[in-house]
Each structure stands twice: as C-alpha cells, then as structure tokens.
C-alpha cells in the first residue's frame, strides 16, 4: 500500500442485512474511528458542512480531541451529509484500498439506516421521498401545484414551511401535466439513417425528475440522438430510489431497483443501451445498486449497460462520430459539474460534450452547488445549502457567461438562487442541462 491512497478508490458492498450494520455500539465505534482520522487530516474542510461541524466540535471540546466529544453531538455532523460522495471520490486519501478504509458517505448511510430501523424516521421526509407518487398526484393539477409552490406565493409557502418544514424561499421543482413517457411517444423524431451512429439503440430511463418535472431534457435527448441515428424508447418504471437512499430506506431502494431492472432487462437482452437522464439516477444504477445487491446478476448487467447522457453522446463521438450540423452558441456557458456526475468517475463528460460545439466558450465549475437533493430545501438546511453553494454562485456571477448549465437541474436552479443574493449579479431567466444546449447547437426547435 502506497501512502496517500494513490490507487483508484474502491467501494465495499454494503452489508446492510448483517445485524452489526445497525448495532448502535458498533456504529459509534466506527464513527469515532473515522472521525478521528478526519480530525487528523482535515482535507475535506471546505467540501460541505459536515466537516466544519465535526472540527468545531473537536476544537471546542475540553481536550480538543475526539475523546471529549459526546457521541450525541455527532448528530449535527451526520445530518449535514448529503451523500454527494465528493469526499470519497475527490479528497480523502484514506479510502479503500488504503488500510484506513474510510468511506464517510456510506458510514452516514449506515447511521441513517440504523436510525430508521430503530423507528427514528420523519413522516414528512418519507412522503417527500415518494417522488413517483407525488409526480402522479401533481400531474392532473400541475397548474395549481405550481401556483401553490411558487416562491412569490407567501400564503401557501408559509403554510408549506409550517407543515412540511420546506423553507418558503427555496425554489421547488415545477410539475408537468404530461409525463415525458407520454410526450415522447406522441412526438417521436425521425431517425437519421445517414448518421454515422445509425443502428445504435437506447432506452431512456426517464427518472422521476425527467418524467414529471423537467421533460424538456428528455425531449432534447431524444432529438439529439435521432439526428445521430439512434433509435430510442422512453421508459419510467419507477424511481431509482435515491430519495429513499438518503433516508436510509434500503428496503425501499431494493424494491425499486428490482422493479426497474425487471422492466429494463428485456431491452438489454435486445442489445439496447440504457441512458439515465439524471446523474443521481445514473449513479444509482451504475454503482449504488450493485453495492446494495452485490450478488444480483441482472443488477450487474444493467450497471454495465448504463450511461449518463453526456457520457453516451461522447461515446458516439469517439466511436462513430457525430452527425454534422452543430452551430456555435454565442454568449459562453458556465458548466457546473454536478457531484453525482463526478461521483460516476467518468471524467467531466458534460464539459467534453459542450466542447464539441464549434467555437465553444466553456467555463467549468467543479464545486458543490450545496443543494443536496431534498436536503437543501428544508427549513433547517436552506441557509447552509446557500452558504455551501456560494463559491459556485460567485464564480458563475463573475464569469459573465450567458448560460448556466448543470447536469443536475436542481443544482442549477439552486445556483441561480445563490446568484440572486450577490449584489450586482446578472441572473439569467433560466438554466439548462448540457444536452439542451447541445440540441440548441443542432438548431432543434422548442429547447
């Protein structure tokens, strides 16, 4: 073993069925082991709020060491972790295969799983994690739902803050009255038989957000792939389970994983690639599911067949070449690299994608937006989320670029909220997924 963990990081399967996994004493022992290593290193001090909270606890204790910190005070550290994976993937020198064997995010997941097993769960947060159900319920009344959740609607947002503990100033996703599955079937683009990649076949796993909220991402993906000769079908069996993972609901994650795998298996057997429209969902299919169900052959096969959308288009460009027709986009692009895209360990594929646009003026931003999924909209976390994301908002504001893009639409909108709080900042009217900008460069209407 070389010092500094110079080898590629590896992750162990999550042994969540072992009784020791949720044993409070064993968890406390592991928390203290890991936190003591973090205290001696402190490389992750500026990643999220978990580490400053931990270091403050230690520095303000009697001995200024972990031994004088009460275990009950660890709660604030645990609750600040959003499972972004950036400490594991980009900062920590002690991840496996290093002998210290640190996996901070999965340790936090273990704590949440144990809390849930011991009855410590939030009814409201569990309801928020039912993203499929919420999307289906909101669809028939999308206009009313969007009106009620607008930040400018002080009456309803104040009530929502009291009842659901969602900060009244937090931007919330808009719902669509028609899901992506329905829209895609009604507007199938013509597949170019002259494109170099003609013959490729892919299923777009719509994901909750792509199916019920930001349907334009899936439509832009469909159109770009059609120009490049790729036959596509849009499916959304159920949610990938990321919102449930954040709450330690591994039984729920497993159930969703099995449902999605069963729905996609016939397509994989027909040699279709699988494209996940959201980076968090791609991360689940590629990495988290195989760690939660390491002996499931179908899960492994799905993981091997899954691409992030930017990754897939880059794969086409390298292997067959892209269809002609890309035109420059004026104004420049701030390209925020989402944490769960970076955690896929595939490189900055969104930046690589946008560089394929002629005369591209790309400004990459490799910092966490601070949003953290549903974590960042909660009343107790919203101000912290803005604080964590402030460097990104400040960088985007200073760059002077016309477009704000992120692989994570929630992160992109959160960046805008940060920019709104910077004096003199010019805040764009909207944000984009990189594939939407790529579609614009192809001259595709409606993006």
Short description:
The chain is α/β, with parallel strands linked by helices.
Primary descriptors:
447 residues; 7 strands; 4-stranded parallel sheet; alpha/beta; single chain
Q: Could you characterize what this model shows?
A:
The protein has helices at residues 24-41, 50-59, 75-79, 86-91, 104-117, 123-128, 131-138, 142-149, 154-164, 180-186, 208-213, 215-227, 242-246, 250-269, 279-292, 297-305, 309-319, 339-342, 349-354, 382-399, 409-420, 434-441, and strands at residues 201-205, 231-235, 273-276, 306-308, 333-336, 362-365, 403-406. With 447 residues, the protein is of the alpha/beta class. It has 4 domains: 19-117, no CATH class; 123-164, no CATH class; 180-319; 333-441. Strands 2-1-3-4 form a 4-stranded parallel beta sheet, with helices on both faces. It has a 3-stranded parallel beta sheet with strand order 6-5-7. It is globular and about 70 Å long.
How many domains make up the coordinates?
4
Shape: globular
**Which structural class do the helices and strands define?**
alpha/beta
For the biggest sheet, the summary is: 4 strands, parallel
The unreliable regions are: none
Number of strands: 7
Going across the biggest sheet, name each strand in turn. 2-1-3-4
Helix and strand element order: HHHHHHHHHHEHHEHHEHHEHEHHEHEHH
Portion in strands: 5-15%
The number of distinct helices, counting runs of at least 4 residues, comes to 22
Give the % helix: 40-55%
| Overall average pLDDT | 94
Ends distance? 50 Å
